[in-house]
Write a structure and sequence with these properties.
Length: 119
């Protein structure tokens, strides 16, 4: 099964740590082909570089070009699941809903992890 993970950067935050642990767990489980698409070459969690997972750094300047690059990646990679950890890219998040219908992948939004407390 092919799983594409998307994240803005591997800075030192909790979201990045959770993404790395998810990728690491899936890799250890086996039977998965994993690709990480990252929007920045900033890497504070160096562990991600030693996981043995393919990483694609987005290089397109501008939102429209990034969206085209993202669609090209999905079209070529044909993931069964896209797991997005993007939290500040609303255009790409909207685009994923359209690409989901076009390419038939399942979509998980991983940055939603906390909810309001119910009284």
């Amino acid at each position: 099964m092919r799983v594409l993970h998307m994240i803005s950067k591997f800075g030192g935050g909790g979201l990045e740590r959770r993404a790395i642990q998810t990728v690491k767990g899936l890799k250890d489980k086996g039977g998965m082909e994993l690709l990480i698409v990252v929007y920045s070459k900033e890497v504070e969690y160096k562990e991600v570089l030693s996981l043995g997972v393919d990483i694609h750094y987005m290089e397109s300047p501008g939102r429209k070009a990034r969206c085209k690059e993202l669609e090209d990646i999905i079209k070529e990679y044909q993931p069964a699941i896209v797991h997005s950890w993007l939290d500040r890219f609303p255009t790409e998040l909207i685009l994923l809903s359209h690409l989901k219908r076009r390419y038939g992948f399942k979509y998980i939004h991983g940055s939603v992890c906390d909810g309001n407390r119910i009284s």
